[in-house]
Amino acid sequence: MDHNDPKQLARRLPSPPQPTPSASASKILSTVPPASFYASKPGPPPLPSRKTVGSAHTKTVQPNTPPPVYGKSDGSPFREPQLVEETPITSDLMPGLLPADGVNTGWGPQVDNAWAGTWPASTETWNTESTPWDNSWSQPFGSSSQGPGIDGREKFEEERWWDSTIRDTHKRPGPGVLPPYLADLLHNPEHSLFSVSVERPDFKSPFPPSSQDDDPGPAFQPPSLEDLRYSIPHPNAYYCRKHNGWVLLQWKSSTMLPPLAKSFVPDPETPFPDLMRRKRTTSCVGEGEQPFGQANLTHHFHRYDKAVDALKLDPPLRRSEWEIFIQKKQRRRKVTSLDLNTISLDKMSDDAMEDEAPEEGDLLDLYVCCQCSLYCIVSEVIPGVIPVKYIEEFMRERWDNPPPGRNREESVVSGLETFLVIVENKLWRGESRGITISRPVFQRKIGWSSVVRGIFDHLSFVIAETVTPAGEKDTSITPPDTDPTTAEGRQNSRKLLRFWVEANAWLLDYQRRNMNMLKQYTFARIWVKLDAVRELYQMGIGAHPVQIPRVSKLPAFLEYEPIQRAINALGFTPMTYSTEILGFAYLAQCRCDPRHTAHYFTQFYSVIQAIQEFGDIPPQELQNLVLQERTRNRYTEEDRLRAIAVLGFGRDNLLRLDYEDDIEEEFLVGAWKDCLKRAWRDPKDGAQRLRDANDAFRIVAESRGSVNLWKLWEDATRDGMDPSRAYTFLEAPQELDDVMLMTVFMVRLADQPHQGDRLREALLTIAEARDSARLRGFLETGQDPGELIPTTRPDFPRGLNQLGNTCYLNSLLQYFYTIKELRDAVGPLANMSDKVLEDEKYSDDDLKRHRVGGRLITRREIFRSKKFVSQLASLFYNLEHADEPSVTPTMDLAKLALVTSRDEEDEEAESRGTDSSNDTDATLVEDSQSIGRLANAESGDSVLGKRARDDNAMDVDGEAPKSPVSDSEKNGSSSSKSISSKETTAKNSAQKDDDDTSKKTSLPERKVQTTSDSVMMFGKQHDVSECMDNCMFQIEIALLNFSGLSDPQGKGSLVKRLFYGKLRQRLTPDHRKSRATVTEKQDLFSHLPVNVADTGIDIYDGLSAYFDDLVDYEGGKARMEVSLVELPPLMQIQLQRVQFNRETLQPYKSQAYVKFGEIIYMDRFLDSADPQKKAKSKHIQTVLNARRERLRLLTENKHAPFDTCLDSTLNFLTKQENVMLPQLDDELVAQLNNEQQVLSTEIEGLRSEIARLKEELEELWKDDTTFAYELTSVFIHRGTSPSFGHYFFYSRNLPDKPDEWFKYNDSTVSDILKAEVLADATALTENPYLLVFARKGSEVVHTVKRIAMTADDPKP
Length: 1356
Description:
Elements: H1 155-159, H2 164-170, H3 179-186, E1 193-198, H4 225-229, E2 237-240, E3 245-253, H5 275-280, E4 301-309, H6 321-336, H7 345-352, E5 363-369, E6 374-378, E7 382-383, H8 388-400, H9 408-429, E8 435-436, H10 440-445, H11 450-458, E9 462-467, E10 473-478, H12 487-513, E11 528-532, H13 534-541, H14 561-569, H15 579-592, H16 597-613, H17 620-631, H18 637-646, H19 665-680, H20 686-704, H21 707-719, H22 723-730, H23 738-751, H24 756-770, H25 773-781, E12 799-800, H26 807-817, H27 820-826, H28 834-839, H29 844-848, E13 851-852, E14 855-856, H30 859-881, E15 886-887, H31 891-898, H32 901-911, H33 967-970, H34 979-986, H35 994-999, E16 1015-1016, E17 1019-1020, H36 1024-1038, H37 1054-1059, E18 1061-1069, E19 1079-1085, E20 1087-1091, E21 1097-1098, H38 1099-1107, E22 1108-1113, E23 1116-1126, E24 1130-1136, E25 1138-1141, E26 1146-1149, E27 1154-1155, E28 1159-1161, H39 1171-1195, H40 1202-1214, H41 1226-1260, E29 1268-1278, E30 1286-1292, E31 1301-1305, E32 1308-1312, H42 1314-1318, E33 1326-1335
Parallel strand pairs: 12-15, 20-24, 21-27
Antiparallel strand pairs: 1-2, 1-11, 2-3, 3-6, 3-7, 4-5, 5-6, 8-10, 9-10, 13-14, 16-17, 18-19, 18-23, 22-23, 24-33, 25-26, 28-29, 29-30, 29-33, 30-31, 31-32
């Protein structure tokens, strides 16, 4: 073949060999030698014919103008590059591009398929015999459903997917992808690849020499046809304009893998697919030569990075010297960016600075189908001569600065054509003269910039400074030497020729895309032809829309990004979604990568869930597949995390330990058995908890790949002992007590001694189910140990036994014990006898020096206070040292805590008169105040809300009192606030001396409420708040120092230092109705109140209502603004739950949920807070409260919800068939419907605005976190009535274990989860009524102090 005569050089598209009609008639393909790779067969073959114009996801639109002609290949003497075989193989056939007519491509019945059964079947008759390569799944298992067409699966392997020994036996290739996803991996789907065919240019003869120096000489030779042929990097290299580079892409059917690179080391986890299986199947798509039809729905490819050496291909991909030089230059540049501290000099020398010729060429990625002989290889982008960044920058310059008379598109084309003219003049005309950049044509078409200079540098043009004849400085650009007799000249020629091809291809594609804007432009002739190869390689790998259809529009659930990631994990693309593809992709991944079966089921199941969440019903085929997988114990990642929690793992869970993969198996077994025991002891949900525990253990065992753990689970589920089996085995009813069970056991053991081990296992199971220490002791010793009292851990807190409806007192005493400084302060006062206390003498001057609760105290109060603290110290000692799980407070301690000194004196006065021998005139003044209360306050608000002091008992665990309503409650005093109630609930104490008090204006007083007495075991019964006040009052008195100087401000008082802060109150009357002036004062406080009336608020909302509120004042309204001046170490927040129903005239307990967390920031409530923020916050809160009130009226009012009422009204009226309703016309019906819609719209709008306002409010204060308090204690009231119920107490294990919490429920102390403390327990009527926060970092709370008591220790 003469390569010099033809005038054109055409490159046609690769044409893989077509499959022969039968194996017997197949031809033996011989290898084409590289020297004769380019044959003379003219013309490229056409693309595969299509039955219709367009595809499943495209449609045709006729252009307004005829498409441009890119070139002609008619008469070309050159054959398109063609794929070759490594060795003659008679059985290797290329897969058909399209399945034959009538081939079933759906989920029809297939051979060797575990899912064969009742799935939708084809009408054709199929051979149901098992295939010779896999007969293990000839019958379905688990279900009669059939899955998508897929073979190569193995039942036992998929059931034991977690077992590494089973996986090592089968050596599966790992995760794979379906053809459409592979097509996207081969090259960016948004980019187009083109096959470039070069036409031989027909230029005029070279320029006549203008001088002797410009004579091109005999060395000049235009590029030959061979040069044009090799200007393309490889026969299977395709051009990408977006990258201005090439991609080598080959696909073929062969049982032999392509030549592998020396450096490639297969990953043991992802070996090559079974070659014997690949030899048996020519193609996964189409019937081909398979006797049983199509075995798989489509291909399943596996990736092997950098596995193929491009130098070993036939023909090889060889880089030119100039490309190798650039690669070396890039490696050297890479060395400069290396961290010399992390890389050795040897590695730098070997990897980055090696100048010798590489042993390997470009390393190509290999994709192999695991079920047939098709494979594909692809390279990274082979860069063009000019880096793409220069091309893009040059385009941007021309786009932004078009010359006069040109639009932007024309400016781009003109500039690149100018480069082509310069190169063509050099290559085909021998033009070696330089070009000066000052020439007007050059400046107009190209210009001069760093980008243009960089392009010429990459083309090896010589850029030099010159002087014009006029003596002006200029820059000349001289073409490089292309002398074919020198190595440098040949390399420069090849580089320019490659650039010429790439620039022509770039221009042709750009012109095609912008033809509408280039209609008036006269193009220079382009000497290449472009043919898109997307459809060709899609057909070759089985990814064409004809083979795997695309959806015309993504369903809503597929637009959800997590679902798209799940689909990608299964190996296909959202656009190719279908029921069949989803099922096939999931099963194929499980088949080829069994190690990650749980991960694939998670992704598969998430798609099914998304379909349901978006309102659709999953197809029946998918429902059947999910059900079948569940029967095979498939689980999701969410199931695994739930299993870990069921076994007790987690910082806030029973084990207080996060789950890690390196946890010992023995520990896991113990956690599982403990979980089983808890299930056995649950009479209500025990069966479900037992199933959950076993499933959880199995899931953890499989996720760890532990054969030992899985065997334990299997044995336990098959013939393990549980309480039901244990009773059956012992032939004993469950109602038998421990004594009778031991008797039955001995009888059965005597009758069946050979069943001794099984009998012991049964009795031990019952012992664990009952948590019977007696039965366990019997099994250990063989003798009945009698009744055993369970022991409590030495380091565990002790409980307090009730003395009779004193559960709230027990909670309070436990709370005091957790406060370290208080515990230490009262400790030395233990065991003080009454005689010692009575002998202490106090002069009148001593009594006058001290005030507690804003008043002087009496000798009687000092005596009873010290007696109370002595009893309290003894109790603290017992809590610290007792071995018993609980201790009992003394009766004296309970009486002193529950009964105040005034009540005691009143009782004595009623019986025999008051004994005031210990009092003086000095002690009897200002005796109307109590600690923590203002003089004008009513007698005591309940911690549950505003209650009269002498209200009925509120701590009765049994029946409710007959008359739980006090007079004050009946008067409705709790429904409206006055200024005095504001002070009362804040527990402000005007603990100032007489002079300071007289200087300040007193706030208005409330009327004294008269209440009836309610007598219990200690006389008058008080609520929790009064009990706390009484205890704190006595502690403060007992700790007074009568021998030293007085402390009138109480700054040295432990109680005030721990519990009391200072606030500022500002009262602003409505000047339109009152002439009163603004009143301001400072007071102490020990509690901050939160009125719990409405739902949907958090702790910040509740406090905001207290710090800015409207109150009754002098017959009108006044604004009460409160701010905090000083903060105490312990912040006590009282949740007032007692509300008053004006219709029933009865108080009730509000069980509304108030959200609170582990941390609260008090910055926003400080007196020193940013005034602008406070003003804005006040405005937002006002609007928020208004919206909440409106929502409450529409949804929670007496007749609410109104939308439901309207709907019921409409239904009632329209169903009246026997009654004539003339007013009921269409207009009324429409009006009722419209009103209902209006209400629903308003309610939804209110809820949205409330959420937005709340978010805006929190965003305003998010950076104010200086004064942080952490939750330490939560007091709980259980019950529906405000007058009786049960109290218990949560305490955080500070400071060492802040994630642990204790529940103090009288004599019982137990561990609980943090989630239980913070949870909404409204349904259980268990509501917080007092929250205690400690200043973060203060370490004022030390919850646990335990020292085991020995026999020699003295007991108090």
